[in-house]
Amino acid sequence: MIVTTAELFRCAYGKYAIGAYNINNMEQTLGLFRGCAQAEAPFIIQISRGARKYADKRMLEAMIRAAESIYPESIFAVHLDHGDEETCYDCIDSGFYSSVMIDASHHPFEENVAITRRVVERAHAKGVSVESELGMLGGVEEDIKIDEGHACLTDAEQAKEFVAQTGCDSLACAVGTSHGAYKFKGKQSIHFDVLEAIFKRLPGFPLVMHGSSSVPQEEVRRINTAGGKLDPSACGVDENEYLPAAKLGVTKINIDTDGRLVWMRVHREYLRDHPEDFDFRGAGRVYMAEYANFIAHKSEKLGCAKQLESIRKSILAQRGNRA
Prior knowledge:
FBA_II; alpha/beta
């Protein structure tokens, strides 16, 4: 069942967070659905502009539709990740996406407000939820690159004003995380003081945390042992910080890099251990199982495992009351 992120957030707010995972191909799609079925967890499928170019938006939609028919008990939102205004409109008008993110955070505040408000008006007219962003995360994600010198944390007072002026449904905040595998140095972690300040000024409003992969050291080590050359100092978000963030209004947590690490580790090890094999489906089968286990584990850490039936009842009740 495809739902909006707003519907998921009403169920999760203050209790747990929903995992948001990017997909690019069949193996990721099936592994994601399988893992959430194992965990009995809701989830958010994220499609980036890069994925739409890589696999074609029609292929991605067809894969999601097929996976939904294979896993009919699943509850999820289909979300555009880091969209520009043109891509947001294309997704809104498609009738398939239940949620879009307009990322105008690189513009001055007033321009960010104006662009976001235009997208909100177009989206809400068709029942689509809108995520926006204020502040800028450092790091690299596909065609987005922000160096540390230009990254900036979200200002709590400005966040309150931004939400009031735009009418967005959720807000991605810069609280110290970053895109890619190299998030923190030394003992750094999420700036909970910044997050708490935003939470106090926007009580009840869903917040989003981008760049939240944990970058497991064991995955990095195994990739390098199998021929990779990742920096062993790569460091991510401590999974034990997910739930404390959820208690402060974070209802959506984006996890992409970790899934890429699982992909690289499985394929590097498989090719190393099976040099005689030319059937790529062997590595694909291993990956789907490994990725499903990874997703189930993340769902436990996010607190959304075993929440499927309660969410189903809540959303159906919400829809029934509006009918």
